[in-house]
Design brief:
The chain contains 15 helices and ten strands. By secondary structure, it is of the alpha/beta class. The chain has two domains: 199 residues, Class I glutamine amidotransferase (GATase) domain (Rossmann fold, 3-Layer(aba) Sandwich), CATH 3.40.50.880; 114 residues, Arc Repressor Mutant, subunit A (Orthogonal Bundle), CATH 1.10.10. The strands form two sheets. An eight-stranded mixed β-sheet has the order 3-4-2-1-5-6-10-9, with helices on both faces. Strands 7-8 form a two-stranded parallel sheet. Strand 7, helix 5 and strand 8 form a beta-alpha-beta unit. Helix 6 runs antiparallel to helix 7 and helix 10 crosses helix 11. It is elongated. It starts with a strand and ends in a 7-residue tail after the last helix.
Length: 324
């Protein structure tokens, strides 16, 4: 008997939060067209057309019209789930549906709707990296983690930003139909079955972690990013700021929430990421241009911060092709 997969949409949705994982389950059905493993339903509170961020509207049925058990309920992300101003009736509907489903999950900001319904209380959870702090602040009883692509805590699954919904869906298919089937689907989608690294590799760590409210080091940070191949040791940076090395390190770390050395390394990694994805210059040249002592130094930094090698990063995200 086919498993019931219900996608719950809240107007408006982020289209890719739906279409990514939906395609995984559609492709799973194609592996056995005579006996498709999933019965897929697109539902909303009242049915009708749900708008998206990409112009396209999605036709849904009212959730109350769905008959039979729900094996998996996936809450789709978007402004509707994140900022919807949901009434108590809808929250109760989400809560009751989650309680009845064998497995419940969220894609990206869909975690906020599950959180509001109390489904994530006491659970480990993740959402888009840019919203993790807000989720933790609004719902302190949730154990929010910033880096995982997706998290499974018992029967509750949550995924990070946008395309990570594909990863979550692939993991569900692997559990339901076996790893080989999930691998075939991943290959057809040109996707990782198990993606290397966490969602921090897609974030903007310098912009996110630079919280210098007084702007004391703004110009210095800009200068660093423009002179990555220069000598950026702490004593030289301190001299530029007319401070002792000790005072500079203390004040910079307090303002930016990174040590000067760590900030420089992050800036160099960010620049290297751009060169790896946007150019075809050799990895050794990337390393030197960004201030690393060589490709081994760059490789160690990537492994430590991103969990992948520069070559893996280029092959996964590059557009120009590798020339390592």
């Amino acid at each position: 008997m086919a498993q019931s997969i219900v996608f719950l949409l809240t107007d408006p949705i982020k289209l890719m939060d739906l279409t990514g994982p939906l395609q995984v389950f559609v492709d799973a059905n194609k592996t056995n067209p005579d006996n498709p493993p999933y019965e897929i339903t697109l539902a909303s509170q009242d049915g009708g057309t749900i708008s998206s961020d990409a112009i396209i509207g999605i036709e849904t049925i009212a959730l109350s019209e769905h008959t039979g058990p729900i094996n998996t309920c996936l809450v789709v992300g978007g402004d509707g789930a994140r900022h919807g101003g949901h009434g108590p009736g809808y929250i109760e509907l989400v809560r009751n549906t989650a309680e009845c489903a064998e497995r419940v999950g969220s894609i990206c900001s869909g975690a906020f709707l599950l959180a509001e319904a109390g489904v994530l209380s006491g659970k480990r959870a993740v959402t888009h990296w840019d919203s993790c702090a807000a989720l933790a602040r609004q719902y302190p009883d949730i154990h929010v983690e910033e880096d995982p692509i997706y998290i499974r805590d018992g029967a509750v699954w949550t995924s990070a930003g946008v395309t990570s919904g594909i990863d979550l869906a692939l993991a569900m298919v692997s559990e339901d139909l076996g790893r080989n089937t999930a691998m075939k689907i991943a290959q057809s989608l040109v996707s990782y079955m198990v993606r290397p690294g966490g969602q921090s590799q897609f974030s903007e760590p310098l912009a996110r972690q630079s919280r210098d409210a007084k702007g004391q080091f703004d110009e210095l940070q800009s200068w660093i990013r423009d002179h990555l191949a220069d000598d950026l040791r702490v004593d030289r940076l301190a001299e530029m700021m007319n401070m002792s090395s000790r005072t500079f390190a203390r004040l910079f770390t307090a303002a930016v929430q990174l040590t000067p050395a760590k900030y420089v390394e992050r800036a160099r990694i960010d620049a290297a990421k751009s060169l790896l994805t946007d150019t075809d210059i050799s990895i050794k040249s990337v390393a030197y241009r960004c201030g690393f002592t060589g490709d081994d130094h760059l490789r160690r930094a990537f492994r430590r911060e991103l969990g992948v090698s520069p070559l893996d990063y280029r092959e996964r995200f590059g557009q120009a092709g590798a020339n390592a």
